[in-house]
Specification:
Distance between the termini: 35 Å
Structural class: alpha/beta
Number of strands: 9
Low-confidence stretches: 1-33, 131-152
Helix content: 25-40%
Oligomer: single chain
Order of helices and strands: EHEHEHHHHHHHEEHEEHEHEH
Radius of gyration: 19 Å
Mean pLDDT: 81
Number of helices: 13
Largest sheet: 9 strands, mixed
Shape: globular
């Protein structure tokens, strides 16, 4: 498919969902994960990781990409993709959660990492995610409640999400926007709040799937699709490695953009809000660790200090650089492991040096 004229990626905001993350895992058998379906899935647990054995490879090995949620930290995923593209590593299928669904969806449509990079650096993603600043939206929330009975979306949430969706796919035709028509198989992970289960959205319009995967609880209104009500997938399945395997991947590269979770001194917990922040980090770590263990290679850029809803150009640049550095460090291992399954990646063409941005 010819590369699309990329539309701004307002999805960044999606990762905010992580903030509210606390949950349980879920996944679906590979036999059900066919293109053109919305399939119940399950996140991996630690006992499953211990028993995991990769299935025998039949035919040409398929490489899958699992992109995790993390809001503004999604800039790091763009940095990772820049390096992987430069190194000639391409993917046969992609699964993404929250901001990962936005980046993964546009990758499958042919958008380049450079196109996505500009959307992050310009701040367009976050500005479109929040039609008005969050502080103002909270102040006027009581007024908006009065008009809810007249709204087409009466579900709970500060922001509707239509502007966000149109921002993402405004340049796409209906045919281009259908997931089942995409040449690279794709799944957006979202949580059905009705039954409490995560699902792989593999059919329908890409814009609605990304909007659903990014519908951060309380902040974004959930999205109704096929009688189900979807919210941000990050609360239950933030790093969809198992989903990549269910889609048929023989080899999975995962990109985890959570802040690192490491031991810290006792004095760290004397500051107001420090326990809450620690618990958010732990919740994401606890959800993502078993999923990451199922990947053949997990790339984990250092996103420490980058807010989930940051609109700062400096954070976008830092995130992209962190992704590039983490990917460069992982390339030797990726190539070695790919060679072991019969995939030889040709030497990369050195990219021209670019002056460092401030």
């Amino acid at each position: 498919m010819t590369p699309i004229r990329f539309q701004p990626m307002n999805k960044l905001r999606a990762a905010l969902i992580s903030i509210l993350s606390f949950s349980l895992y879920s996944i679906a058998p590979a036999s059900l994960a066919a293109t053109g379906e919305i399939v119940e899935t399950l996140s991996a647990d630690r006992s499953e990781v211990k028993l995991f054995k990769a299935a025998p490879i039949v035919g040409r090995p398929k490489i899958g990409l699992a992109l995790g949620g993390g809001g503004a930290r999604g800039a790091a995923e763009v940095g990772v993709l820049k390096i992987l593209e430069r190194e000639g590593i391409h993917f046969d299928l992609v699964a993404g959660t929250s901001i990962g669904s936005v980046i993964g969806g546009f990758y499958c449509l042919g958008a380049t990492a450079e196109q996505m990079e500009e959307e992050f650096k310009s701040g367009a993603v976050m500005r479109n995610f929040m039609a008005v600043p969050l502080t103002f939206r909270l102040l006027v929330a009581p007024v908006f409640l009065l008009f809810r009975p007249f709204s087409h979306n009466k579900y709970d949430g500060l922001y509707g999400g239509d502007k966000f969706r149109k921002y993402l796919v405004g340049k796409l035709t209906t045919e281009e926007g259908l997931i089942e028509n995409m040449k690279i198989p794709f799944a957006a992970i979202a949580l059905n709040v009705v039954d409490g289960r995560p699902y792989m959205i593999r059919k329908g319009h890409l814009g609605y799937a990304m909007q659903a995967s990014c519908a951060v609880p309380a902040l974004r209104k959930p999205v109704e699709i096929d009688g189900m009500l979807f919210s941000d997938g990050g609360v239950s399945c933030n790093l969809p490695v198992k989903q990549c395997r269910a889609m048929g991947a023989d080899f999975v590269i995962a990109v985890n953009i959570d802040e690192p979770f490491e031991p810290v001194p006792l004095s760290s917990f004397k500051k107001p809000g420090s326990i809450t922040k620690r618990m958010v980090k732990w919740a994401l770590f606890d959800i993502d660790e078993p999923q990451a263990a199922l990947a053949d290679v997990t790339i984990h850029p250092n996103t420490e200090g980058i807010s989930l809803i940051s609109t700062r150009r400096s954070d976008a640049i830092r995130g992209i650089k962190a992704g590039e550095e983490a990917a460069i460090a992982a390339i030797p291992m990726i190539k070695k492991k790919l060679k072991e399954i019969g995939i030889v990646v040709p030497p990369a063409v050195e990219a021209p040096a670019v002056p460092e941005e401030k």
